[in-house]
Amino acid sequence: MLRLLTIIVLSINIYACALCSLYTPTAHVSFKGNSISWEFSSNFSQTLLDGYDTNNDKTLDENELIKVKAALLDYLLPRKFLTTLKYYDLPFGESIDIKFIVKDIKVSFDKELILEYFIDYDFTPKIDRVLVLSVEDLDGFFNFKIKENSYQVKDFSINENINLNAVYYEFKAPTFIQATTTKIEEKSKEFETGISIYENMLKFLAALQSKMISLLKDNSLLLYPIALIYGFLHALLPSHGKSITAAYFMNSKKQILFFSLKVGFIHLINAFIIAGFFSIFSLFNLSKISGFLISLLACILLYLKLSKKQSVNIVEKPNNIKSFKLANNSKILKVVKNEKALDNFLAFSIGLLPCPGLILVIGFIQSLGAVAFIAAILIALGMSLAIFLSAFIVTRFKFSKKLEIISLIFVIFVGLYIGFFQ
To answer: What tens digit of pLDDT does each residue of 278-295 get?
Structure first.
């Protein structure tokens, strides 16, 4: 252990050697975006104080810190400060190393030794991009622990995930900003509560997804009920086809079970295609396409509702026998009024919405086989269950034609919102 003491602290007395040989010095690391600081443990700081406090004033003055800094840099400079930076894009982005330059180095002492170095690097934050910082000494002379801190970037919210000597910063869309005036704040309390519930739901689903992947790797039976629950809860989130499904099945006696299973099946096939050809499908925003298709279908249904009374004409033949025929024999209208065509169009539009958890699980099928495949099916079934409930509930009641029309107009705007802003 004498080599450790010589390389790192260049200690000059026997006592420091004996103390340092009893443990590996620990440094708590904080990341501030443009700088990284190490706060050394009290024991290690006391060791340095015993070795370098030549004037016995119980602290390290500027001249003494120069010697400590030189000893640290002698070890850290050739090893790039034991620091690595990289990033990747969710869900399947390749990890890319980030090169950085150390611009300035500061060493201070206030009961504990603090090393801070300022860095210059090229990195562009982006939604669903993850920045990874790790500090590790492969020679084992230092032990590092990342401290929780408030790293912030303008126009983004950041999810911080610490794993011992590494930290993952996931960039998300900016969080909701409260209105500045008192009146708006009072009126928006219910809305803020809804936002909070939505954000908590997203956090819970993210935790559930992480748990699901962990159980998947461990081949645990608990994976299967969690996969079903994840699919169900994911489909309960806004913009997952429940509004159009409810509007579609108002005052209807259609078979909703088969329709719901069809939606789940399309979700599953869609996820397989995205996972298999992600580099191609990443160029398209399927959520936008789905939103526009849902608006189109709502327009078709609205047209059918409004034109229902004029859909037939009574024709009187020479023998006074009355017969009925379609007022418009257009082939397009025949397709539009075909119930199976409408069912399939709606199922396809809803199933086109990508499910990140489903795509992620499918990514493990090649390595884990049947376990991942069954989990993917259960996620799709969970989504089908949510769609089934939205249809089942509206079929239990009788709605006026005016309410049906209002609901379809609402769905048109929801679809357009998804298409333009999601």
So the answer is: 544 544 566 677 778 778
